[in-house]
Design brief:
This protein is α+β, with helices and mostly antiparallel strands. Helices cover about 25% and strands about 35% of the residues. The relative contact order is 0.09.
Length: about 500
């Protein structure tokens, strides 16, 4: 037990993985060149990056990994894949040109991936540069930067002169700190494929970024159903290496055929890999039932884990009329992590924790993956919810809603501020949450329905007290920024 807790405490913060998106020629590669202090751009045909490469730098004692996504329109699909592989997206916009078609396309990719992003307004040194106009255009795309009353980080810079580059790197490190990107170098291997191709001389070449564990020459791995033994590895500079650690970009040889971009490279025999090839190894309670609920269970200690697992198993074995079985895809100690979510996604299961945390980055991954994740402080609540899952009543559309509230009453303060008295219908309202305001229940919305207004939650109040979160069935006062003068009772707030 003590050893498990020790291992959890020894988890390390991994380097953020960052990708650049934006319109062609707005300076994505130029910024990266400036950061890396190299000259990739000159080696690229036509000055446009035409492959996905990955690079790593050290800044103020911290590593940052960059995915250099293609800038040309023909590579839109590759750009989308690169975006999914990253923790943070830098949206690059030229200060003198503003928001262009590919900028809007990049915004769509960012929204689809529910990615965290930073706006980088480049080329502020050029004649005609107008960062204010860019911010105005972004507001029209429902992106509000901080100095316009929103929550999105924005940096003004020049790749040519180097002005503002340090501010961009600082913003990346700040966002990475908020995301709490944790990893276990000794844990199960997970590496994301960002490029794969067949080379005439070298055979199948796979570029990937390690997300968890350590990748070594000689490892037996599997990706896209293709087994391989890692024969050779190069780092991002082309140097031969024998090991790659979390967030390291690496190029490997050893696959007999080309695996899919965006797939995970896993250690053969690992939990995730075994799930795909041998479900007989998964523990199932109530095997005679026609339907099983797949579950990943995490707890703070081994003793607690066994106790909770026993209580959940009793839900099935104590009833002679059970129609559902419990399928334990994985049980373990420590906080809920990305591996748990990926395993749940692969096995079509849910993640349940007791006395453990769900870091923000894991919450985001669960949301984008459509995986239900719940952590409990009270054993009775945990058992009750799993019992409802077994009955088929717990998973509903509302469980996928970040937050939804109905406006009950409007208050105007002496300061002129408008406070919306709301009741939370599903999910939760949080300070700094982005919201859309509708004049009818979002349940009834059609594809043609547009929000009346976009805003963010500046303050939440419970009586006279400021609060950070208001959960389901709670009433609260909501102060929006920017304010919507036309807000009224019976309107709805939907967290984006």
């Amino acid at each position: 037990m003590a050893e498990n807790n020790k291992k959890e405490n020894e988890k390390k913060t991994r380097a953020p993985i960052v990708t650049f998106m934006g319109h062609v020629d707005h300076g994505k590669t130029s910024i990266l060149d400036r950061i890396r202090k190299t000259n990739v751009q000159e080696s690229e045909y036509g000055g446009i990056t035409q492959h996905i490469g990955a690079y790593q730098i050290s800044y103020k004692g911290n590593k940052i990994t960059f995915i250099d996504t293609p800038g040309h329109e023909a590579f839109a699909q590759m750009r989308a894949r690169g975006g999914r592989a990253a923790d943070i997206v830098v949206l690059v916009i030229a200060a003198e040109e503003g928001v262009k078609p590919q900028t809007k396309e990049a915004i769509s990719h960012i929204r689809a991936a529910k990615a965290h992003f930073i706006v980088a307004i480049n080329k502020i040194d050029k004649p005609g540069a107008d960062p204010r106009k860019v911010k105005q255009q972004l507001a029209q795309e429902n992106i509000l930067v901080e100095d316009w009353g929103g929550n999105e980080l924005c940096v003004e810079l020049s790749a040519k002169t180097g002005e503002g580059i340090d501010k961009l790197l600082d913003a990346i490190l700040l966002m990475a700190e908020i995301l709490e990107l944790k990893t276990d170098p000794d844990g199960e291997l997970e590496a994301m494929i960002i490029e794969s191709r067949l080379d005439r001389k070298r055979g199948v070449v796979v570029s990937c970024i390690v997300r968890n564990g350590t990748l070594r020459v000689g490892d037996s791995v599997i990706a896209s159903g293709i087994s391989a033994k890692v024969k050779h590895m190069n780092d991002y500079n082309g140097n031969t290496i024998t090991e790659a650690y979390p967030s390291d970009p690496v190029e490997i040889l050893g696959f007999s055929s080309v695996p899919h971009v965006g797939d995970l490279i896993l250690a053969k025999g690992s939990e995730l890999a075994e799930l795909a090839v041998d479900e007989n190894k998964i523990e199932i309670v109530g095997k005679d039932a026609k339907r099983a609920i797949a579950l990943i269970l995490k707890a703070d200690t081994e003793g607690t884990l066994e106790a909770v697992k026993g209580s959940l198993s009793n839900l099935v074995t104590s009833s002679a009329e059970t129609t559902y079985a419990l399928k334990f895809l994985h049980t373990g100690t420590g906080d809920i992590n990305e591996s748990d979510v990926l395993l749940a996604q692969s096995g079509r299961g849910v993640v349940v924790g007791f006395n453990v945390r769900v870091p923000p980055a894991v919450e985001d991954l669960a949301e984008s993956s459509g995986v239900l994740v719940r952590s409990y402080k009270t054993i009775y609540d945990l058992i009750d919810d799993v019992s409802k899952l077994l009955e088929g009543t717990a998973v509903s559309e509302t469980s996928k809603i970040k937050g939804r509230a109905k406006v009950i009453k409007i208050f105007k303060l002496d300061s002129g501020d408008i406070v919306a008295g709301c009741k939370v219908l599903a999910g939760a309202l949080k300070v700094k949450s982005k919201v859309a305001i509708y004049n009818k229940n979002p349940v009834d919305l059609t594809k043609s329905d547009e929000p009346l207004f976009y805003s963010s939650v500046k303050k939440l109040k419970k009586g006279k007290d400021d609060i950070d979160v208001a959960g389901k069935d709670n009433e609260c006062g909501v102060l929006l920024k920017p304010q919507f003068e036309g807000i009224s009772a019976d309107m709805y707030l939907e967290v984006l």
